[in-house]
Structure formats: C-alpha cells, structure tokens
Amino acid sequence: MTPPFAPSHNAGMEDAAKSPLEAELKRLERRLDDLVGVVAQLKDENRALRQRQDVLSAERAALLAKNEQVRARVEAMIGRLKSMESGA
Fold it and tell me: CA dist 47 to 43, 58, 61, Å?
C-alpha cells in the first residue's frame, strides 16, 4: 500500500500532459500581453491624431475666415475702382 501523500505512478503522466498545456497557456498569455500593449499604443496614437485633427480644423476655420475677409476687401476695392472709373 502506498502512503496517502506519496506521488503516484500517474503523476508523471499528468505532468507530461500539463506541460504542453502550460506551454500553450504561457504562449497565449504572452500574446495577450502583446495585444494589450498594441491596444494601449493605438489608443495613444488615436488620441494624438484626434488632437492634431482638432488643431488642423481650427486652423482651417481661421484661414477660411481670413480668406473671406480678404475676398470682401478685394471686392470692395474693385467696386471703388469701378466707381472712380465711371466718375472720371
């Protein structure tokens, strides 16, 4: 009779069966860690791109407003030139 806590003959077989499973779990764990890192990196990149987009949108709006002001001034000058031409 074997003692109650002595390793059984099947223990070696269980370890052999666990080893590939444990290796696969470790591989999956590393892969999951890699994916979590990629997700964090993509979140940071996405945040930076959104901030850059906001800056560019504000710059575009400012340039459009400035362009409209310049257009209005040029049209006013053209109107004054035409009135000077017809008055002369």
Answer: 6, 17, 21
Q: What tens digit of pLDDT does each residue of 25-49 get?
A: 999 999 999 999 999 999 999 999 9
- In the three-class reduction of DSSP (H, G, I as helix; E, B as strand; rest coil), residue 88 is classed as coil
| pTM of structure | 0.59
List, in order, residues 6 or more apart from 2 with CB less than 8 Å away. Answer: 8
Share of the chain above pLDDT 70, in %: 80
* pLDDT at residue 60 greater than cutoff 90: yes
Which backbone phi and psi does 56 adopt, to 5 degrees?
-65, -35
By the 8 A CB rule, do 2 and 8 touch?
A: yes
* Dist. CA 33–CA 31, nearest whole Å: 5
Alpha-helical runs (H) found in the chain: 11-87
